[in-house]
Specification:
Layout: H1 2-26, H2 35-44, H3 46-51, H4 75-80, H5 83-141, H6 143-148, H7 150-187, H8 192-195
Amino acid sequence: MKRIILIGFVFASFAALVSSAAAQAAAPAQDQSSLGDYAKKIRKDPGTAKARPKVFDNDNLPTEDKLSVVGQQSAANAAGAAPSDDKNAASAADDDQAKKQAAWKAWQTKLTAQKDSIDLATRELDVLQREYQIRAAAMYADAGNRMRNEAQWDKQDADYKQKISDKQKAVEDAKQKLGDMQEEARKDGVPSAMVD
């Protein structure tokens, strides 16, 4: 019995919801209009255009002149500026840009030279390490040779290890110098694309 009452209650609630939704759909609102209709009405009414501030959209965006986001140019500033002043300012800006480009190019040349010296030192280190490995393999492969030339091998071994150590230090110093140069170039305003 309780189930039948519960089912009846759920059915009655559902019916009430459906009937209220149907009533809302049947009674259209008379004051509702689309946003597009409102925009057309505002554009056609000339009185509202004077009351609101200038708004730029695709229809009235200037195509031949620049759009100022800072504000309007003062009348005294606009009247006092002569075309020759504009040319001088443009020429000075071009000269400054040319000087910047030349300085950036000089930094790029220095950095490239340092990278090349690092590459050369790294290749020399690789050659030294390979030579040492070949000599060590040849020495340890022949037990008789190892016993006959033990003192000479110890001296050569120490020399090669010292050369390798010196070359590794030179490579690390060159990398450190490159890092310092890159940081100095960044502080000087060189773009990252030219530094890296």
